[in-house]
Every structure is written in structure tokens, then in C-alpha cells.
Amino acid sequence: MEITGLDYNTQREQLRMPEYGRDVQQMVDYCCALTDRAERQRCAEDIISVMRIMSQQRHTANLEQKLWNHLAVMSNFTLDIDYPYEVRKQEDFMKRPQPLPYDTNTIRKRHYGHLLEELIQKVRQMPKGAERDELIKITATQMRRSLQTWNHGTSDSEKVASDFAQYTDGEVQLDIEAEGWDMITYNTPQPRGRKGRR
């Protein structure tokens, strides 16, 4: 069914900056079409005041410069006015950002993660004593939790002990019979009764 006079956004020209909406884009198009330079300047300043009201970043230090940059983008860099700020060139917007330098360290067992591997290396460097034993318990407990998370709720104490021994080249052997490191308690939610029941 076709209704006369009804058009959809999918049939319209794509917005250059959708956050300002189609009305502001139409104001910019109108401003670009003005022939008198003084009138075009006044129109651009009025559009900036509307954009300032619409902006969610009112407390940004360089908000005004951003707004004028946005106006230039919305006009496809064709608006011939006196900008109060130096407006970025179209080429600057098209530049691709530099790639981020990602950490290329390999993780031996991905389900434990890089931080846990660092923690195990810290355990290896610590002198023997109560503090080291406590850190071993904490690390082994976290290993078990990670294993339980990635194995869909199942974990094996022997697997954790074996992995810990591999990471430390046999320096640390966990006693899986000892209490403490593998005692993980979870708060299971209690079923609730109807409202009003005590």
C-alpha cells in the first residue's frame, strides 16, 4: 500500500551527523543555499545556538570548537562563512587512526588469563613462609573459579593442582586433600514465597 505524501527515513538522504537529527540538517542545507554572506553568517550562528542546546556535552572545555567542526561536517565542508575557530579539514576526518599497540604475550592456558600467570610468577619469586602459602591458596582458589567458569560449572581439584605444578615447574605442589584453598562457597538464592507470607 502506498500513501501519498508519506516518506520514510530509509528513502531520504543519509544524515552526516545523525545525533543532531534531520531538522538541524535541513537548517544547514538552507544556510548553505543562502546567497548573502552576512545572512549566511547569522544563520550559521543561529544553528550553532540550537546545536549547543541539543548537545549532551555542555561542560566540555572545547565545546564551541566541536560544534563549529560539526557544522562544517554537516555542510559537507561547503559552507562559506567566517568560522570563529579553525575548522578541521575534510582530509583530517578521513584519516585512519594509528593502530593500537596490543600486547603480544602468549597465554599458556587461556582460561586462566594473563594476570593469573603473573600472580603465579610472583608466588615463585616470594620467599617461603606464611604470606607465600596464603597467596598460593588465593591463587589456586582463583584458578578453580576460572576453571569452573570456562568449563560450564565443573572444576577438578587435580587439574588445578596439575596446572599449578606446570606453571611453577614443579616447585609448588598443591595438597588437594588439605582444606582451605578449594573451599569455595556460593550463596544460593533461597526461593521466595508470595507477598505477605512471613
Structure, described:
- With 198 residues, the protein is an all-alpha fold.
- It has two domains: 81 residues; 87 residues, no CATH class.
- Helix content is 46%, strand content 0%.
- Helix 2 packs across helix 3.
- The protein is elongated, with a radius of gyration of 31 Å.
Beta-strand residue fraction? under 5%
Largest sheet properties: none
Q: So what's the overall shape?
A: elongated
Instruction: Give the total of beta strands.
Output: 0
List the domain count as a whole number: 2
How far apart, in Å, are the first and last alpha carbons?
59 Å
Low-confidence stretches: 183-189
Short description:
This protein has 198 residues and is mostly helical. Helix content is 46%, strand content 0%.
Q: What's the topology here?
A:
Elements: H1 21-33, H2 37-54, H3 63-74, H4 90-94, H5 114-125, H6 130-150, H7 157-167
Helix pairs in contact: 1-2, 2-3, 5-6, 6-7
Properties at a glance:
single chain; 198 residues; mainly alpha; 2 domains; 46% helix; elongated
